[in-house]
Amino acid sequence: MIFQKHTISLETRNPIALIDITPMVNKALADSGVQQGQAIILSQHTTAFININEKENRLLEDMTTFLKRLVPRDGDYLHNLQPLDGRDNAHAHLLGLFMNSSETIPVSDGKLMIGQWQSIFFVELDGPRLRRNVLVQFSGI
Description:
Distance between the termini: 5 Å
Protein name: Secondary thiamine-phosphate synthase enzyme
CATH superfamily: YjbQ-like
Number of helices: 3
Mean pLDDT: 97
Helix content: 10-25%
Family: Belongs to the UPF0047 family.
CATH topology: Jelly Rolls
Number of strands: 8
Radius of gyration: 16 Å
Order of helices and strands: EEHEEHHEEEE
Organism: Chlorobium phaeobacteroides (strain DSM 266 / SMG 266 / 2430)
Shape: elongated
Strand order of the largest sheet: 1-8-3-5-6
CATH class: Mainly Beta
Low-confidence stretches: none
């Protein structure tokens, strides 16, 4: 049984961004040597998440617009009165209630078993940030 851990580090440039990390996860999988098993992809942040969805530019714009409308950044949030790190980011934490911090994906024949139109996204909700980390762990044979 193989257990391999990889860290993907990202810099984000926008307040809300959907970043396709599928190529980085695929490279880490190839480096791991796992042929049959699973991949766990975890955002190590409370204001950034992992999502599987379709990569199409207009859809990505729609998603960003939807998130901004769902929980506006300038809302009247108690968390923003005394934020722990000086960032008015209650909106990002609230949006996180609807998202996953991790995804588990089966691996077969050394490939992620995602669908034809699926990509793995790192969803930034509190950018820009100089460094964000995604932990990828593979287990299998």
